[in-house]
Structure formats: structure tokens, C-alpha cells
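Issue 218. Parser rejects a valid record. Input:
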Amino acid sequence: MTPEKLPNSEVDSNPDCPVSVSVFFPCYNEQDNIAALAEKTTTVLEKLGADFEVIIVDDGSSDSTARIAEEIAQKDDRIKVIHHERNLGYGEALKSGFKAATKELVFYTDGDGQFDINEMPKLLGLIKEFDIVSCYRINRQDSIIRKINGWGWTKLVCLLFAMKVKDIDCAFKLYRREIFDKIKMSSSGALIDTEILARAVRQGYTITQKGVHHYPRTAGEQTGANLKVILRAFKELFELRKKILSGD
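Output the parser choked on:
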């Protein structure tokens, strides 16, 4: 595999040319977070003078997320909504977002408000030299169990796929959109971030990393730490490794 590259020095984070970017949020029962996040995102992108679109992926929410998202989109034609009729899982939500993106760059963060979209412009200078900016959480605001699980999972993934990534599942990443025309995405669950980075590295795309702040969840509930999700991810992990090593 082609190893990822890391920057030797700080890269100017202020883009000197117009930015074309799709920003999307996978959401499941985020009725209390999505409106504020969408508004904040459009404000940030307007200040950049970007050519942008905002995509809300409603992954079969059972609360009012779908309705609120549609109301937001009706007021701003730069915002669009993708609905899953039922909850398909995190991987399917990300795949829907990446497939719907039409701009030169594509960025995603979760709809739970635990990241600050104001930190996204810092990644734009880095994407001029690299194909992917994969962020890591500074002072991760999760339970000690989630922190330990995340650390161990990242170490295992990096060992299996010969990568050097600090925080594989950090939901704050920027990509060149062309990557998704050239790689396949088969994971439907929590393995999706691993699959994308592993396949991209194997195709020769370069990765850099940057720390971003992580904040406590103020509304809604976390859904990614239950035992069923974890066991499924381990099973899929070794199946994925076989596929990638065989060229599938």
C-alpha cells in the first residue's frame, strides 16, 4: 500500500481561490441539533465565498428530524435532503452523502453538534497538497470506555491496513470528490471510515491529519457504542481486509 503523507510544516489554511465544496451531515434522531448546524454551516460557507451545497442525510429518523430538514431545505435551495425510509446504518448514510455530492470537494461531519463547523476552513489549505484531510479529536468528550474502544479500534485498523491515522472514526473529514468515482464502498455500518481510507490509500491517494476540538453532546443520544454494532464492525473488518488484499 502507498503510505499516507504528513505535512512537514504548517500549510496556509486560507484558500486563495474559490472553493467548490459539498458539505453533508448524516443524521439519526437529531431534531434538536440539525437546524442550528445547517444555519451555522451556511454562514461559514458564505463567509468563504464558496460555491457550495449542504446535504442533510436523514437515516430513517423516528423523531422530527425529517420534517425539520425539509423545512430548512424549502427556505434555501442550496440545502437538500436525502431520506432513508428506515434506519440503514451509519455506513449507508455516509454513502448516500458522498454519492449525492456534486462539488469538487466533499466534507462531512455528524449532525450531533459535537464538532465546530468553524474549524472546517482550516482544512482547505491542506487539501491543496493532499487528497484527504482526516482529522482527530482534541480532548475527546466521550466516556472513558468509548475513548479506550476508539483507541484500540484505530490501532487495529492501522495495523491491518498499514496506515498511520490517529483517529480513524473522527467525523470531521475533507476529501477530493473524485475519490468516490474510483473506489467502491460496501460497508453499511461503522466500518465505512476505515474502508474509505484503506481503499483510497491503496489507490495512491494521500492523507494528512489535523486536530479539531470535540465538544460534549448537548441534545439527542449516541447510537454507535452498543455491543451489536461493535461485533458487526469486527466481523466486517476482517472480511474487508480479505477483499482489499484480493483486489476486490
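Fixed in the parser; the record now loads. The CA atoms of residues 32 and 231 lie 30 Å apart.
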